[in-house]
Specification:
The structure is a single chain. It is built from 6 helices and 3 strands, in the order αββαβαααα. It has helices at residues 2-5, 54-70, 84-97, 101-111, 118-133, 141-146; strands spanning 10-13, 36-39, 74-77. Helix 2 (54-70) packs across helix 3 (84-97), helix 3 packs across helix 4 (101-111) and helix 3 (84-97) packs parallel to helix 5. Helices cover 46% and strands 8% of the residues. The protein has 147 residues and is mainly α. It has one domain (2-146): Alpha-Beta Complex (Protein-Tyrosine Phosphatase, Chain A), CATH 3.90.190.10. The N and C termini lie far apart (53 Å). It has a 3-stranded parallel β-sheet, covered by helices on one side.
């Protein structure tokens, strides 16, 4: 009910699962609420490949924000809101808003304290390198073309 009152139309759970370090929700949990749910079964460990879900997460966030003619609201969460979900939001900002990793992380940190684990930070750095090489980051396009 609280999410509905806040106008949330979509929920992205970046910690889907039944173990202690996960959040046990599913599409059925949100049935009848009008909220669209998507879950990613991510572990908050340095060796977990969250980057395999970056595109999927960004697509879901895009669709959610576009809902109701751009008035959709997406709630992205994990168990603590400190590592997994912020990593997904940073990747989204990089991929869809052409922010480099530092700016995207600073943007999220401006709103709340976050701390992606070292493995997730490495994956964001790898994404940054890939997007920079492809000329898909603001401020990086000129650098890429002059090399």
């Amino acid at each position: 009910m609280r999410l509905q009152k806040l106008g949330v139309t979509h929920v992205l759970n970046v910690a889907e699962g039944t173990s202690f370090m996960h959040v046990n929700t599913s599409p059925e949990f949100y049935a009848g609420t009008g909220i669209t749910y998507h879950g990613i079964p991510a572990n908050d460990t340095e060796d977990f490949n969250l980057s395999a879900f970056f595109e999927e997460g960004a697509d879901f966030i895009d669709k959610g924000l576009a809902h109701h003619n751009g008035k959709g609201k997406v709630y992205v969460h994990c168990r603590e809101g400190y590592s997994r979900s912020p990593t997904m939001v940073v990747a989204y900002l990089m991929m869809r808003h052409k922010m480099d990793a530092r700016l995207a992380l600073a943007t999220v940190r401006h709103k709340r304290e976050v701390g992606p684990n070292d493995g997730f930070l490495r994956q964001l750095c790898q994404l940054n390198e890939k997007l920079a090489k492809e000329g898909k980051l603001n401020g990086e396009v000129g650098k890429t073309k002059t090399k």
